[in-house]
Amino acid sequence: MLGYQYYNLLSSAHLVSALPLQKIYAAQEQINSAHQEILADRQADVLGFYNLPETNTAYIFDYLAKLDARFDTMVVLGIGGSALGNKALYSALKTEAELPKKLFVYDNVDPIFLDEVLQEINLDTTVFNVITKSGTTAETMAGYMILVDLVKRKYPNDFQKRIIITTDREKGFLRQVIKQEGYQSFVVPDNVGGRFSVLTDVGLVSSAFTGIDIAALLKGAGDMRDSCLTPDVFNNPAYLNGLIHFLYYRQGKNISVMMPYSNALYDFADWYRQLWAESLGKRHDLKGREIFVGQTPVKALGTTDQHSQVQLYTEGPNDKVFTFLTVERFKHDYTIPNLHPDREEVSYLGDRKLSELLNAERFATEIALTKAGRPNCNLVFPQIDAYHLGQFIMLYEIQTVFAGKLLHINPLDQPGVEAGKIATYALMGKAGFEKERAEIEQYKKDRGV
Fold first, then answer.
1. What predicted TM-score, i.e. pTM, was given to this entire model?
2. Catalytic residue among 35, 101, 139, 278
3. Structural domains for the chain
4. Is 278 a catalytic residue?
5. What pLDDT, in 10s, does the model give residues 214-241?
6. Which of 181, 421, 439, 444 is catalytic?
7. Which among 287, 307, 435, 445 is annotated as catalytic?
8. pLDDT for 439 beyond 90
9. CA Rg, the chain, in Å?
């Protein structure tokens, strides 16, 4: 089970900015209210991610069993919630789990990035997985049209087996394409939003393809969910961490820094950034009042960013809450040779494990932050494997929804994203956005653009 060390976030003699335990107790009415709202949402089948651990994944393995064995690479075309979870799982496990197949995630419209992906892969042995629920996501569909055209021209007789589509169960443009072309398809559920979808077909198909143990992934998620069913925050790690972040946010801690002490977990900080930012950054509360809330998520990498960011964190503005991700046991580790036993400058490192140094530096950063009165906590992975990653995913998805309830906002929508989408449609000449196009042209004229 993931370990959660939260003592540095709570009251202690040496932490001047500590959160008194009385603050936790005083929030019990808010906790109960948020918990009841979550229960009501689950009853209404709004929070579908809670039920994903019970998914029967036999259909995924049926597809993989029929797939030609020569296919050793998958390229995911997606963005945001259709990409970040896939990338995070693969990055975390490709080395520690010694995954037999490769995954690339094309999640931008940068032409150089696309060229780099194409240079890295062998088209003969690659499957493309197009992931978009609506089938109208401009970035994903641009990649789809370029790459499907390439595949069709090079493999006119068997292009269908090289393309799969993950989209809405019944609706949308891509469902029509699937019927016309005969592509294998998978589903983005109606009751699971994109940033909560990594444990659906969105993330499970690519994970299973590469060799990730998705049964263990779902088992970890289920065990964490079952640990987070009580309104007792001291026995519910998702509620406790969400509440602590909420209370510190109300004290002016507007930034949440996630700092993995593991390169393998670094992409999970990206996944967390979308989940926290898109869910909680809202202009209006549930009553339509302007409140402009949201805690800005920032990622850092230990030990790398001890030499770039920690100076700011210890002596700059005290407006942050810190979460370390620590790994207790690494499958791959190295012993530092004692090459200079007679030199005190380096002899202390001799015969110590590289992981020992890594975790000592993590603890040292905790000490430095604590002495500086900066609230921090530590989430401990016994090891990096599918089970514990499943726990982590479910922990943060529940925590995010709970924090949204405390803020009295809708953590499941993203209205602020739509303005940019509409402007993009208008700029690219999409039919139906002529008025917006005219407004943009006037905007450019007024500013001499």
1. 0.95
2. 278
3. 3-41+218-407 (3.40.50.10490), 48-215 (3.40.50.10490), 418-444 (no CATH)
4. yes
5. 999 999 999 999 999 999 999 999 999 9
6. 421
7. 307
8. no
9. 24
